[in-house]
Amino acid sequence: xxxxxxxxxxxxxxxxxxxxxxxxxxxxxxxxxxxxxxxxxxxxxxxxxxxxxxxxxxxxxxxxxxxxxxxxxxxxxxxxxxxxxxxxxxxxxxxxxxxxxxxxxxxxxxxxxxxxxxxxxxxxxxxxxxxxxxxxxxxxxxxxxxxxxxxxxxxxxxxxxxxxxxxxxxxxxxxxxxxxxxxxxxxxxxxxxxxxxxxxxxxxxxxxxxxxxxxxxxxxxxxxxxxxxxxxxxxxxxxxxxxxxxxxxxxxxxxxxxxxxxxxxxxxxxxxxxxxxxxxxxxxxxxxx
Length: 289
Ligand SMILES: Cc1ncc(COP(=O)(O)O)c(C=O)c1O
Known about the structure:
Blueprint: E1 16-18, E2 29-33, H1 44-57, E3 66-70, H2 74-86, E4 89-95, H3 100-108, E5 112-116, H4 128-138, E6 142-144, H5 151-168, E7 175-179, H6 184-196, E8 201-207, E9 219-223, H7 225-239, H8 242-248, H9 258-267, E10 272-275, H10 278-284
Parallel strand pairs: 2-10, 3-4, 3-6, 4-5, 7-8, 7-10, 8-9
Antiparallel strand pairs: 1-2
Helix pairs in contact: 1-2, 1-5, 5-6, 7-8, 7-10
The structure holds pyridoxal-5'-phosphate.
The site of pyridoxal-5'-phosphate (PLP) has 16 residues, from α6 and α10.
């Protein structure tokens, strides 16, 4: 019999899919590493599992314990899958910018979800940063994940995502373009690829207003959220990536596309590129619901 022992074993080894239409006039091959093939539908499954497993190894989380995290949803999904399999309780602290559907799915997966206001500074006691910390402090036998500062986040991508990409491209990758949230993916994959070939370019794309800046990357672009949707919508319609289409339909096409044309300019000069912007979609599209 060929089977997985549990859902967590299906995390990773996501497909690399050639984008045939969007880049057809370009003198290079462009591939999407479609992270929505993960069981929790995003790249975050990888780090969620790794953070929990490392916390188990170092004794930070004990059997029957409670996991607490501030999350807009995707890390929460990964944590929820692992919590079910491993028997932990999960408390997700989120904010009122997130769609009801996203939070409902987390609740359906057994998580307790607490919603905090977005229009307060991070150090306000009502902010979701402060609330998640406080809950972790006050809940017995609990562990605060803290994905932004947790080194296992980056490690998951250094140990898994990076080697997958290197193997799938047979070392031919020249550019890695990636959406940035915590910076775990860009740091882990970037470090791995640079160790293999220091001339591989690492490009991060972030939304306006974010402060992420990572040393490893060679180029950092900003994109507005709607711009990210447009890119996703194009991928969905023109490359038949249906799982992207379902979250990208509510796009206003009248949007800033500066960064995309910038990337296109750069693309014309290169031979190959990898994009994983589809992973970014889950995070942003649903805010428009
Ligand atoms: C679906 C999705 N893709 C990509 C990212 C960004 O990844 P990272 O946090 O590793 O920078 C996030 C989170 O911010 C996400 O939820």
